[in-house]
Write the structure tokens for this entry.
Amino acid sequence: MLKEIVNAGIWGIGIYMPEKIRKNDFWGEEFVKNLPSHKIKDPFDGTIERRVFPSDINPSDIETEAGKRALEDAAVTPDEIDLVMVHSMLQDEIIPGNASLVQHKLGLKNAAAWNMDTCCSSFVTMVITASHLIAMKTFRKILIITSVPHSRMVDYADYLSVNVGDGAAGVVMGEVNNGKGYIGSYCCSNGAYHDAFTMKERMPLGQVKRHYEPSPVQPLLTINPETAREIGRHSNETMKNSLMQCLKRSNISSDMVDLFVSHQPCSWAHDVWRDSVGIPKEKSHQTYKIYGNLASTSIPVNLWEARKTGKLKDGDLVLMASSGAGENHSICTLRWGR
């Protein structure tokens, strides 16, 4: 049976950024053990600061706080949410995921709880999914939450540690007026690059275990340099094609975009992706220098920051783009406002 389709959009945003700021002098004089030659001149890749959560707070607590702030911003009560989607870059337990725990902690007694994961592109993936579920009236109000406690995943003798930060964010989505909300999207994947970034149990770089000491082996973010370089070589071409496909499906041109926000995996990615489709710098927003790589949390944080500074206004056409390890790309357009 055919259903009436409604417009779905973002009602409110909430972010939870740690108070602790880690500056570049944290790494000291010896720095890292595996710094590539092309990073010697700027080993911090443009990052000046990054945020760090306390070690005694659980990922689900981080996500709960971000969700609470999103609900407050949207002026929505917990009882009104009928689905919560959660992406945890690091969850409390290996199994199960955090979604049902966050649902419990937030008191979302009427909500189903789903764990969603396309790595760093998870936020956009969840926005696309939620938009269709609301459009078909399968759910009415959906809370999306994403978190990344990078500080617990990285080896501080590894150069990957210098440009990643911690953060959490959430948005509430629901039905919006005609002319607002979700417009179109494009997603693609390439599993040939699956091993570029993984979590592996290994020794921290430069650390030697004496026979009488406890094993320092731990799960750590690990890079396959060859695969990562291959991704970098094709990044602009892949993202440009993905952006163009999304714009085409949305029936809009790049000069109609009011704000471009993206994942910020490194210093150059946001600018190169934006330039590839001819969007002016003044119509984009990023926070790489002060937050570093925030994985799937990058886009909601940048939306919140852009709104705070007046760059994101009611009625603006927003283009969101993200790549994620796996490899996944998720691109989405929407008209901002309720």
The first helix runs from residue 59 to 74. Residues 8-176 form a domain with the Peroxisomal Thiolase; Chain A, domain 1 fold (CATH 3.40.47.10). The mean pLDDT is 93.
